[in-house]
UniProtKB/TrEMBL annotation:
Origin organism lineage: Bacteria, Pseudomonadati, Bacteroidota, Cytophagia, Cytophagales
Name of the protein in question: 6,7-dimethyl-8-ribityllumazine synthase
Gene label: ribH
CDD domains in the record: Lumazine_synthase-I (cd09209)
Species name: Hymenobacter sedentarius
Catalytic activity: (2S)-2-hydroxy-3-oxobutyl phosphate + 5-amino-6-(D-ribitylamino)uracil = 6,7-dimethyl-8-(1-D-ribityl)lumazine + phosphate + 2 H2O + H(+)
GO molecular function: 6,7-dimethyl-8-ribityllumazine synthase activity
């Protein structure tokens, strides 16, 4: 596949908006926590790297990816919250639930973003194997958490 070795964490920060006064919510699924913790750290570090203040980043966990939507809504409903980043890992094969979970989260997160008119970022890693998920957290495909944070910053500059 042509994109097999693409590192998703490569990005151009030259046009990033000032996020020094922006508030971010991180919603992190505890399912596959060893990986979601790495995604969360990637997102957190990326926000700090580009000017966010640590005290303006609110990290909350939810049991599994299915709960990301409601967790996002809990944070997005606050007027002072500027963007919400949802992070989870769903491994196909581990569960027949995967399609239901992924579709529900994709639709739910979209609705929350539209309802509150602010970026709600879909940082859900969906793979066939655990190894592929790790590749997207700290491997050859970068870190999806970094990518999700970059997406949030880009949308705040829209
Ligand atoms: C139940 C379940 C299963 C089977 N697989 C995953 C998964 O791969 N990744 C994930 O984040 N969560 C999974 N869950 C948990 C659901 O997301 C949810 O937490 C429960 O169904 C309770 O609503």
């Amino acid at each position: 596949m042509a994109t097999a070795l693409q590192n998703l964490s490569d990005y151009d920060a030259s046009n990033f908006t000032d996020i020094s006064e922006k508030r971010f919510g991180l919603v992190v699924a505890e399912w596959n926590r060893e990986i979601t913790d790495v995604l969360s750290a990637g997102a957190y570090d990326t926000l700090l790297k580009h000017g966010a203040k640590a005290e303006n980043i609110y990290r909350n966990t939810v049991p599994g990816s299915f709960e990301l939507t409601l967790g996002a809504q809990f944070l997005a409903q606050h007027d002072e919250m500027d963007a919400v980043i949802c992070l989870g890992v769903v491994i196909r094969g581990e569960t027949k639930h995967d399609d239901y979970i992924c579709h529900a989260v994709a639709q739910g997160i979209t609705q929350v973003g539209l309802k509150f008119n602010k970026p709600v970022i879909f940082g859900l890693v969906t793979t066939n194997t655990l190894e592929q998920a790790w590749d997207r957290a700290s491997g050859k495909h970068g870190n999806k958490g970094v990518e999700a944070a970059v997406a949030a910053i880009q949308m705040l500059g829209f």
